[in-house]
Amino acid sequence: MTTQFTTLIFVLLTIMTANCFRNHRSFLTQTSTSITPTAENLSVLGSAANFAILAGSTITNAGATTVVGSLGISPGKAVAGTAVKLVSGEIHAGDTVSLAAQASLTNAFNNLKNLAGAVDKTGTDLVGLTLNPGLYKFNVAAALSGGILTLDAKGNANAKWVFQIGTTLITEVNSTVRVINGGSALNVYWQVGTAATFKTGTVMVGNILASADIAFGTGTTLKGRALVRTGGVTMLGNVIEVKP
């Protein structure tokens, strides 16, 4: 009886140790700065994923803006201008929730920035391109000059696109980014070194992670998230929704 009991305890300890190792290894894969663009390790937004809009200094709105998702700001507290119609979610201004989200945003920004093996698109206008899932890099600015950028998921619902942009991301008037063939807007990541500007009538998709600021022109729409580390988010009668 004693021998059987000892054997059982040994087996249970072996299983528990193996499970703990697997969980620890999974955690390291998600947080490492050498992650690769796969479905598993691009879930790096952490608590920032709870926000449609997250800013560092200010959130400013003019006109009838609709937001599907939460608004957060930290370390700033200023939410200024005309009222935003918040369809779902909450407002967190300078509290512990928005502070934690900012920490997650910084981690996600750095992880995406440090991904290796990108296709270099420096100096290429995004208009007219059809891009397969993958990692794309712009050493300086990236631009969409008033046309359509198509992201083709090839029938893969888990397809991912990551854009590493050294400085600014600017879309001209009536630019459009679209995902086709079964992909999701929430699987598109724009890591922007400074500021992102979306001019009037832009139809945008993806998670915008900007270091400095994000500005939306009149009537611009975003399926995704507007996340700013240090500066502000400015809206002008927009629709911003966390939606595939």
Helical/strand content category: alpha/beta
Number of strands: 22
- H/E element sequence: HEEEEEEEHEEEEEEEEEEEEEEE
Shape: globular
Rg, Å, rounded: 21 Å
Quaternary status: single chain
Largest sheet: 12 strands, parallel
Distance between the termini: 58 Å
On the 0 to 100 scale, the average pLDDT is 85
Q: Count up the domains.
A: 1
Number of helices: 2
Low-confidence stretches: 1-42
Report the sheet-strand fraction. 35-45%
- In which range does the helix fraction lie? 10-25%
Would you mind describing this structure in some detail?
- It is a single chain.
- By secondary structure, the protein is α/β, with parallel strands linked by helices.
- 20% of the residues lie in helices and 39% in strands.
- It has helices at 2-31, 96-113, and strands at residues 51-55, 58-62, 66-68, 70-73, 78-81, 85-88, 91-93, 119-120, 130-131, 134-138, 142-144, 148-152, 161-165, 169-171, 176-180, 188-192, 195-198, 203-210, 213-216, 221-228, 233-236, 239-241.
